[in-house]
Amino acid sequence: MTETTHTEVTGINKPSIWQEFWSKEDWWAVWLGLGIVALAYVLYLTGSSISWIAVAPAKWSTLSQLSTQFSKNGIKYLALLAAFLGLFTIVISFIGQKPKAFIPSFIFIFVLSTVIYAIGSWDQANRYNLEPPLLALALGLFISNVIGLPRWLDAGFRVEFYIKLGIVLLGATLPFTLIIWAGPVAILQASIVSLVTFFVIFFTARKLGLDHRLAAVLGAGGAVCGVSASIAVAGAVRAKKEHPPIAISLVVFYAIILIFALPLVSRAIHLPTGVAGAWIGTSEFADAAGLAAAQSYGGLAGTHLGISGTAEQALASYTLIKVIGRDIWIGIWSLVLALISVTVWERTETNSKVQVGQIWWRFPKFVIGFLIASVVTTLIVHGNTLTDYNKLVKPSLILPITALRTWVFTFSFLSIGLTTRFRELAAAGIKPFAAFTFGVVVNVALGYFLSVIVFGHYWSSIVTH
Amino acid sequence: MKILDLIKPGNSEQICQKCIHFQNDPAVIEAVYPGLTIMSSGFASVRDQDGLCNYNQLYLSARDSCPHFIPRISGFNRGEIENSVRSES
């Protein structure tokens, strides 16, 4: 160690504040999402629309109808594929991945997504429980765990990037007034559940004799935003190398169960879509998993007797609770746990101090794009009469953005399935499993109590565009 | 205000980011933690510049530091330097 002073210090990877703008998926989701919204608005102003390229299968009842649709719109689908492929390949190149592997992988994802989208548009799809998000997930899980895919194809399965881009586009379809109106309730509800869930997992894990840092990594995974929270807190508290995989395995395991379970239970008890979305936002772990569940349940509105509300309400209440209520606080969680770690748990292991800047460094930046997109479209919509909105703004601006959002969400849901190889997940061990399971039970029960009984009237009446 | 003493405003010189034991390439992190990409990403903002310390076997911030710091140098790979340090000590 002392013999290193004569050496020349070079090749240092200095962290640059600018580098993050093109090296992180979050920022790319912001650039692309806002770019799409800006392009949509410019075309709308010129009397045109992006609706030509934002193609999606319409409802069909016979295969000949579907075939006619594809033969009529084939060129549009190819244009959409080319646009996504071009944009995403730029992103992949900038963040340092290989376009050569990404391109065939993305084409594979696009083709499968088109099939799923088409199946979801079948007028009998709901009758057979063929909700596109769940279908995408189930198909992905089947392909990756039963058939198997070459590892290099993983290059295109960027779950987080697709979901972040989708959330920015979702912002463009949510009125900012709704965020202002419902945001405080979302934060209050999510904070109660997050704190309770964290302490339940943390103290159960400690009671079972687990390391403080592992207990914190597990607690954050259950309480804040799943795998992302676990990996953020792991870095903040200087977790042991083997801690993150334990949390990842448990979060993925329960997140996948809840993707299917929460919509199923909500459907059995006929929850309004806004209420179910709030419950899913409170009790699911990862953004992508929760969106799959919320979109799936929202899709039942209007087709299943007893389920009131709209598909957009499910997504809106979910996003408010999950993104505004839980995700944006990860920096605060990391700072507090880092402080506790250096003062109480691991005083001797490193000689570092805690950097308050991590509140910003760890901030999920895609949320900025989500909020800007919401403000922009709210300003655009403001001043239009309801008739103008329904006749002009909605079909030319809002619906095409919604269609593109559905595409990227489908890429994400499919990618969850395609990247989940159960046999490769680390064995969590019985004690972490027990602590996390206890947290899940409390989280789901408390989430139901707050979403349905305490704030149910509130979430069932939220207004979207 | 002891707690404020623990909060550091800026970077010091001997931080993990500049240490030979530290690795934070997102692609490497995704390879080391294969489940990470299922519901998160090595390229996510929440991960900041965190990485793995091969000396302490910890996952930690690039802005951290410890007494085992060895600066990165040109023309050598990590194995050569670590062997050299071991033999000299």
UniProtKB/TrEMBL annotation, chain A:
It comes from Mucilaginibacter frigoritolerans. This is Putative integral membrane protein (TIGR00698 family). It is a multi-pass membrane protein. Pfam families: Cons_hypoth698. Keywords: Cell membrane, Membrane, Transmembrane, Transmembrane helix. GO terms for cellular component: plasma membrane. Belongs to the UPF0324 family. The chain crosses the membrane at residues 28-56, 77-95, 101-120, 132-149, 161-181, 188-208, 214-234, 246-265, 328-345, 366-385, 397-420, 432-459. It is found in: Cell membrane. InterPro entries: UPF0324_pro (IPR018383).
TrEMBL record, chain B:
It comes from Mucilaginibacter frigoritolerans. The lineage of its organism: Bacteria, Pseudomonadati, Bacteroidota, Sphingobacteriia, Sphingobacteriales. This is Uncharacterized protein. It comes from the Bacteria.
